[in-house]
Amino acid sequence: MRPLPRLLLLTVLVVAVPADAKTTVIDDSGTLPYDAPLVLHWQQLSPRRPVNNRMTGTLTVRVKLNVAPWLRRPGRIYLALPAQQPGAMNASWSTQGRLLAGRLSSGTRALVYSGLITTPFIEDVLQLTLEVDGTRMRQLYHVNFRFEMDEE
What CATH architecture applies to the domain 20-151? Predict the structure, then answer.
């Protein structure tokens, strides 16, 4: 009798995944940071136990996404942080309301918009905070984010 509940769970998971979902990178060439470069600061200035080697920095970013190809269609927009140097990173952000606030780790993505695309551009201002392991910071790094559209 145990195998039946597993089979039902598997069936529900398979049904919940859209078979025809397509992911496309969104043109965000109109996106500009207000204050570049991002300056990182140690979270802990004096040695304590346990040692905290984390560094954080905050940057204001004006986001402008060209979503004209999806006009008058439903879609889901994600902010993606690919795995990259200097290693594991965490990002969190607040918005002015057009996009959703959230957080993510390197190698993942987070939902920032879901619904009907009603204008050719989606614009918002993000207050982006990045957190990295300070022991891995040996030089300046370019951190690459991207926006992705999942068409429904």
Answer: Sandwich (2.60)
**Are the C-beta atoms of residues 44 and 135 closer than 8 Å to each other?**
no
8 A C-beta contact, residue 103 and residue 110: yes
**Residue written as tokens 């195998």?**
3
Q: Are 82 and 146 in contact (CB under 8 A)?
A: yes
Q: State the pLDDT at residue 140.
A: 63
Q: What average pLDDT is seen over the chain? A: 79
Query: Quick one: DSSP state of residue 100?
Result: P
Q: Count CA within 13 A, CB hemisphere, residue 65.
A: 28
Distance CA 100, CA 147 (A): 13
Domain ranges of the chain: 20-151
109 or 53: which leads in pLDDT: 109
Residue 9 has pLDDT above 50, yes or no: no
Kindly report the pTM of this predicted structure. Answer: 0.76
What 3-state class would DSSP assign to 64? strand
